[in-house]
Specification:
InterPro entries: Sig_transdc_resp-reg_C-effctor, TF_LuxR_autoind-bd_dom, TF_LuxR_autoind-bd_dom_sf, Tscrpt_reg_LuxR_C, WH-like_DNA-bd_sf
CATH topology of the largest domain: Beta-Lactamase
Largest sheet: 5 strands, antiparallel
CATH architecture of the largest domain: 2-Layer Sandwich
Strand content: 5-15%
Distance between the termini: 21 Å
Protein name: HTH-type quorum sensing-dependent transcriptional regulator VjbR
Shape: globular
GO molecular function, one term: DNA binding
Organism: Jannaschia rubra
Domain HTH luxR-type: 167-232
């Protein structure tokens, strides 16, 4: 996974157009070995844009039926900052059950994990992985891939912002490694766990954290994480 993930991140970083970004998002499907990967963004202007691997017929149905207005995934991610496993959401309303049934019929799978992303100037996005799997298989996958998903979601959104021309100056302040370090800490990982995930020493991690703290004008690590989240520099 490490090598495949590195290749995927390189492709994301080199995407020079929205078509290239969509191709990079599609390649993540193979990286994580799932059926679908989706990036859906709402720009500060209200315009929507997405890079999806869903069947085009399902995408058109979703748009025509205005399912986003009643989609438990979108509503949950808009209201919260934490990732949403679809199994934990409220699908009891009739409209939500209809949405889910039609989606499964179009091949989106019975499992989903969605990460809300908030960027600068009111930008909002959702990064989702879908698959057909047993509950225990999906739970194991989510635990193993969670840290990688946090980082990938950030990189996809960051590249989309850059291509959209809405990436503002504060977004340029943190280096990729500083961003990675704060993202993992914000997700509740210890310094040892974050260093292990990034394949660096804890001393090197400390350098990145202190550099980020200085750039953000933060008093401590917790303050740095909070500042980074409020500025849309990291997503959790």
């Amino acid at each position: 996974m490490s090598r495949k993930l590195d290749d995927a991140l390189e492709r994301l970083a080199s995407a020079a157009s929205f078509d290239a970004l969509e191709g990079a998002v599609t390649s993540l499907r193979d990286t994580f070995e799932v059926e679908h990967v989706v990036y859906h963004a709402v720009r500060s202007t209200g315009e929507r844009w997405g890079a999806v691997t869903y069947d085009p017929g399902w995408v058109q149905t979703y748009i025509d039926e205005n399912f986003q207005a009643i989609d438990p995934v979108v509503l949950n991610c808009f209201r919260r900052f934490t990732p949403a496993d679809w199994k934990t959401l409220d699908w009891s309303p009739r409209a939500a059950r209809t949405l889910l049934a039609e989606g499964i019929a179009h091949g989106i799978g019975n499992q989903g994990l969605s990460l809300p992303i908030r960027g600068p100037n009111g930008q909002f996005a959702v990064f989702t992985l879908n698959d057909r799997a047993r509950d225990d298989e999906w739970a194991a996958f989510a635990r193993e891939a969670f840290d990688d998903l946090l980082l990938v979601a950030h990189y996809v959104n960051e590249r989309a912002l850059a291509l959209d021309g809405t990436q503002n100056a504060p977004h340029q302040m943190l280096s990729p490694r500083e961003t990675d370090a704060l993202t993992l800490l914000a997700a509740g990982r210890s310094r040892a766990q974050a260093a292990e995930h990034l394949r660096i020493s804890e001393n090197t991690l400390r350098v990145y954290i202190e550099s980020a703290r200085f750039k953000l004008g933060a008093l401590n690590t917790v303050h740095a994480v909070a500042n980074a989240m409020s500025r849309g520099l990291i997503c959790v």
